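Residues pack. One example:


***
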Amino acid sequence: MKSLKLILLFIIVYQSHAQISDFNHIDFEKADNVALVCKGEGLTNLPELSYKLTAKLDTDVERFRAIYRWVCGNIANDYSLYLRNKHKRERFKDDSTKLKTWNDTFRKILFKKLLKDKRTICTGYAYLVKELAKLADIECKIVQGYGRVSTTDIENLDLPNHSWNAVKLDNKWYLCDPTWASGIPDPESNRFTFQYNDGFFLANPKLFAINHFPIEGQWWLIDKNIPSFKTFLASPIIYGKAYENLTLHNKPKQLHHTIEKHEKVIFQYELKKTVASDDIRLLIDNGFSNRKTKATSTSIDDKQLTLEHQFNNTGFYDVHLYIKDDLISTYTIKVKS
C-alpha cells in the first residue's frame, strides 16, 4: 500500500510540471504551417477539417498544435455575445430554473453563431478545440471555472465566467487557453483583432493558476499550494504578455499591499529567456501622474528576476511591471507615514 501511494504521488507531482518545455525537441513550424494553409476553412464538416489539420503530422502534440493554432487564428471573440450571456446569468443567478433555461437557450445561440459566423466566446473556443482533438483521437477536456483579467469585477465574481482546455499528450495533462491566445476584442466597437499569444499553449500550471480557477480541482495540475478562491481573488493582475515572458510569477503573491514609508517591496519572477536589466521598468502611477523608473535594485540570476523597490513617499500607487514594451503585471501599494 505504501509503495502504491508513493507511485501515485510521483504521478501527481510529475504531471504538475507539465508544460510546453516538455516538447523543446519538437519544431512546431510544420504544424503552424498546416494551420495557416487551412486558414478560412469552414465548420460544416469537422471530421474533414480535423483530418486536414492532422493527417500529415507525426506526433499528437504536433496534431494538437495545428488544431489549436487553427482555432486561435480563425475564430473571432464576440464581446457583445459575452456581455449578453453575462447579463442574463447575473440576472438569473438566484433562480436555478430560469438560469438553466437561459443556459440551454444560449447554447443554441452560441453554436449557431460559431458555425455561421465563426464568432464565439470562451465556451465555443474550448468546445471546438475539444471536438477537433477528439476527431484526431486526442483526449481533450473542457475546463469550466473563473478567469481574471484587468477588467474583472472581483467583488461580484460569484458565477463561473470562463472556459479553457486540458489536453492529454504522452500520458500527461496540459493546460491551454485558446480564447485568450487568439487576440484582442474591443469592448466599445466589438471589433476583434487576431493577435496570437503562444504563452497560453501548454502553459505552466502554476502561472496559469494566478488567473484561472477551475471548478473541478483535478484541473489545477499542481500538487501543492493550491489556492483557495479567496487567495485567487487576491492575486496580482497578470496580462497576456506575462505568459510570453514568464515561466513563473513568484512574488508578490497579492494584488494589494500596505507598507510603511521607506519600506521595500520584493518582486520575483522566473523568465522564459534572459533579458537585460535595462529592459526592466516599473511604471508607478499615483493617480495624478505616472513615470517609468528602474527599481531600486534589479538582479537577474540565470533566468530568475528579482526586483526590490523602496517607496519613500506616502500615498497610494498603482505599480505596473514592464519588460521592454510588454505589460506583465499590476499591483497596488499603499504607503503609510
Remarks:
- The chain has two domains: 18-235, 248-336.
- Confidence is low (pLDDT under 50) at residues 1-15.
